[in-house]
Amino acid sequence: MSLLAETAPLAALCAGGIGTMFLVAGVSKLRGHDAFLGTLASYRLLPSWSYEGVAWGLAGAEVLAGLALFSGFAAGFGGLAAAAMLVVFALAMGINVARGRTSLSCGCTPGLVSETLSWKLVARTVLCVPLALAPCFASGVSAFVWGQGVMAGVALYLVWLALVALPPERVPGSGGGQEA
């Protein structure tokens, strides 16, 4: 068995996680178009006449990349597209962090999770690039194994999203807060 065949389930797991991240981000940008348009403009990296087209195009590209990663047969294309977008996102965030503009929203998922720019966020985005590329190297994986891996990746992404988005629960008497 080749190394690529042995890592196919891991590639499917990455396709599910990164695919879900891009699908959620793209749909959020389509639904919250005006909010995303404002975030995109706040980065001050593009000419003002291009914001509208870039906002719609980027959201559509994220949805298509996510769906391609899920598919199995177009996962290589989806992985390349996702990796390219992640590099562009990291560069855009890095330029603004270097400019000292760290109060900007990342714009990742309008309406869901909003982080401000930081080098930590840039690094996390860069670390997602190899995960996005992993499906490009999967070959000969059965639809059943691909489906299982993708669903596990979806589940992992949703657990991460819940941990980031949900407020911590304060239990009375646990010492986690001020008591009256």
UniProtKB/TrEMBL annotation:
InterPro entries: Methylamine_util_MauE. It comes from the Bacteria. It is found in: Membrane. Residues 9-134 form the Methylamine utilisation protein MauE domain. Its main location: membrane. GO terms for cellular component: membrane. The chain crosses the membrane at residues 6-28, 49-70, 76-95, 146-166. Keywords: Membrane, Transmembrane, Transmembrane helix. It is a multi-pass membrane protein. GO terms for biological process: methylamine metabolic process. Pathway: One-carbon metabolism; methylamine degradation. It holds the Pfam family MauE. May be specifically involved in the processing, transport, and/or maturation of the MADH beta-subunit. This is Methylamine utilization protein MauE. It comes from Acetobacter pasteurianus NBRC 3278.
